[in-house]
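Give me the fold.
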Amino acid sequence: MIFGDCRRLPANGKAENVYVPPSARSLDDDERELVELARRTIDAHTDAGPDEDGVHTMGAAVMAADYRMFAGVNLYHFTGGPCAELVALGAARAQGARQMRCIVAVGNHGRGVIGPCGRDRQVFVDYYPTMRVIVPTPAGPRSVLAADLMPLTQRWTPEGMGSLDPSLYQDPETAGPPIIRFNPRYLEVVRSGAKTKTTRFRDPARLGPARLVFESDPEVVLPAEVTGIRHCPVSELTDQDAQAEGLTTAAELREGLKSHYPDLSGTDEVDVITFQINDETAADTP
């Protein structure tokens, strides 16, 4: 056992009868990049050789709501030095990040993704309950809600221990109207009504209530209604479609889509989604 790291897997690498929470899902490209950042960080800065004791044996990386990534390494001490995840969270805060999207810890010398200790899990639930945490499972690394790592938990706040809050275990991605994500640069044109359409490729929506999520830090969420969905080839996009997105011509819209979807061709089919902001509640949204 490395004295700076109490989170080693069994030598045979096998895990049987492991509980995997319902929020678990496969990693997306951003989460895989986060794992790689944590791996590179600890490989570059560990002070221990393979199977040796060390002060710095774990790396962590955290992703903010705006997709910026921050890394840290653990600082072992017998008095309870901070784990790599807490160091990474502190580094993120120091760089202006406020809302965290995902976190992961990785062991040195190729040990891979390692789940958080009990103290870290409590910290995540208390401060970032909707953050996702990348953990090892028999099927490989998976992303789960922080709250799912502490079943039946009661959050601590500076005012004291709270009561059980079942809403902690609701995945924000599914516990409400469907989400349509936007780059934060579109916030003002959507709010002003200059942009009432969005064109998506392999990113389906459905008619009815929706949440428009602008991926700033912290995120801004506007309640909206999807009022129309038109399926058409890229080549059939019109100037009117472009103007509803705050642009001028269909050629300009197609060029913009290529920046979002580099592999998009003129024969690919896209969804032209028409929406309107719910004015009654959007006015109170920061």
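Confidence is low (pLDDT under 50) at residues 1-15, 282-286.
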